[in-house]
Amino acid sequence: METVELQKGTTVSDPLPSPALTGTSQVLVSARGLQKSFHDRPILKNVDFDMHRGDITVIIGKSGSGKSTLLRALAGLTEPDAGEIRIEGQTVFADGARTKEWDTLSGDVGMIFQTYTLWPHMNVLDNLTLAPRKTRGMAASEARDRAEAALDEVGMKHHILSRSTQLSGGERQRVAIARALMMKPKLLLCDEITSALDPPVAAEVLDVLRRLKEEDNIAVALVTHDMAFASKAADRLVFFLNGEIAVNTTPDEAFENCSNAELQKFVDAVRF
Ligand SMILES: Nc1ncnc2c1ncn2[C@@H]1O[C@H](COP(=O)(O)OP(=O)(O)OP(=O)(O)O)[C@@H](O)[C@H]1O
Ligand SMILES: [Mg+2]
User: Which of 23, 36, 59, 122 has a beta carbon 3.0–4.6 Å from 44's, enabling a disulfide?
Assistant: First the structure.
């Protein structure tokens, strides 16, 4: 049986075939043949998708093209009808169901949404520690230590006892990132997290994501409608069209040498 070395000391059998790696990064997540229909309408049509450690992969595409559905499938919030998902070579979804490996690897995946989804009546510390303590049985002292470290990473430790209603939009989104960091994820899925923020604040959030990918080697997937933001943020740019990945390229290639007429319309919108 074919084997591949993924990390020092780990070998995994029968890897999914992957396209060439970008730079020195390695594949963290592989999805193959993902399909999902809602009410008999195909939303994901045979999607193949890789994410690499230390890369920000920006996903763009028209409204309704399936971007959030893809992220939700990777996060375990939506079950695809068919296809396979692997994290570090281990199958976490196959044959229409999560595998037992997902139970241990789900903590590797964090997801953040456009709306901050923080509890308004709780302070920042409680917002971060509630789920790990209640659903993962984490001890209060460990939860507090992790919360302090996560808030430090996003520059929000001084707000640990603030209520979320006392924070600005950018601060709330940084707290939402910190909350996603509580389980020390290797993959961060961000669905339009800067859409409600003005450009300088969006840039601050991007700085946080960049630091996470550079210092912690986290893989980031970022869905956005903001092409200027996409061009700044992306190591890879994925263009979604009608439930399929129409283009998967570098931002330079997309902006300077675009091969897809529909993507070109998005590119032109930035130059407008
Ligand atoms: N739970 C659901 N039940 C029924 N239809 C759904 C469900 N989730 C998504 N859809 C449909 O699937 C399609 C794709 O939705 P999705 O949210 O993935 O698009 P998107 O690319 O993220 O769009 P946007 O840019 O507007 O966020 C939409 O037509 C949507 O209505
Ligand atoms: Mg969406």
Answer: 36
Tokens for 238? 């994925």
User: CA 61 to CA 93: how far, in whole Å?
Assistant: 25
Please give the Cα distance from 4 to 90 (Å, whole number). 12
Between 207 and 19, name the one with better pLDDT: 207
Least confident of 69-73, 100-104, 203-207: 203-207
Q: Is 140 exposed, middle or buried (0-12, 13-18, 19+ CB in 10 A)?
A: exposed
Domains of the chain: 18-271 (3.40.50.300)
Q: What is the pLDDT of residue 65?
A: 93
119 lines ligand 1 (CB under 6 A): no
Residue 5 has pLDDT above 50, yes or no: no
Best CA proximity match to 163, nearest among 115, 122, 131, 117: 122
> 5 C-alpha to center of ligand 2: Å?
35
What is the pTM assigned to this prediction?
0.87
Instruction: Assess whether the C-beta atom of 43 lies below 6 angstroms from ligand 1.
Output: yes
Atom 26 in ligand 1: residue holding the nearest Cα: 63
Q: Which strand (E) or helix (H) includes residue 271?
A: helix 261-271
